[in-house]
User: Fold this.
Amino acid sequence: MYTLFETPAWFAGFDLALDTIAFLITLVISSYSFKLFKLNENRKFGYFSLAFALMSLAFLFKLVTYGIVYSSASQVVAATTIEAVTGMGGVNLSLRNLLYRTGFFVQMAATLGSLLLLFLISQTSRDRLTKFYEVSQIGLFSYFVILLSIVSTFKYTVFYLTSFVLLSLIVLNYYKNYLTKKSANSLRVFVAFICLMIAQFFFIFVFAANWFYFVAEIFTLIGFAIIAAVYMQVSRIQGRSKNQPKIFEVKV
Assistant:
């Protein structure tokens, strides 16, 4: 069976519990951002909602794919379902692997798309999507996200290295934001993305020691938990006043 890498046997299943929590966090943030977008008609909230919706999609596909990989019973159910849909008896291993690769591809493409949006959100506001060349750049970015995701299903380090680079740029932007604001919330956001960046660093080197996967999962959950706490606090206050939260700058 195709897998990205060998996860620690003692951690198999527990990682899905952590990812379920992360999935719920990203889903709540996306939903709450969308409500604020409908209330304020502020594009920042719309892009933030889309970014975390993509992240939720990534976690959902990871939960499904890894759930099948970890469970023999799930593998039998998946094989039976494939045979029923395709009408092919005795589905071969290559077809199963293709489906697993598809699951990993969606996870990777959604994650990179989310990080790209978060990178744009973390920058100073400007008029985006109002000029043709700006729109063409979005198309180019989308192409590279898809291309990198396809390559990453064969070489997972490409995905985690790309995520690490994007998060490094996001961290840099929020560090500049912290130096400007000098507020507790801007510091928390900065720390949250540092945690996510550290997680990607450990994911890159899972091939060296599979327990790095455990460390990466813990840092991922911590990062999203901090973002959720800060965003809900700031958005609740700003939602009443209908002003844009200055802690989340948008480049749209």
In short: The helical segments are 14-40, 43-70, 72-86, 93-121, 132-152, 156-181, 184-204, 212-241. The chain has one domain: 9-239. The chain has a mean pLDDT of 81.
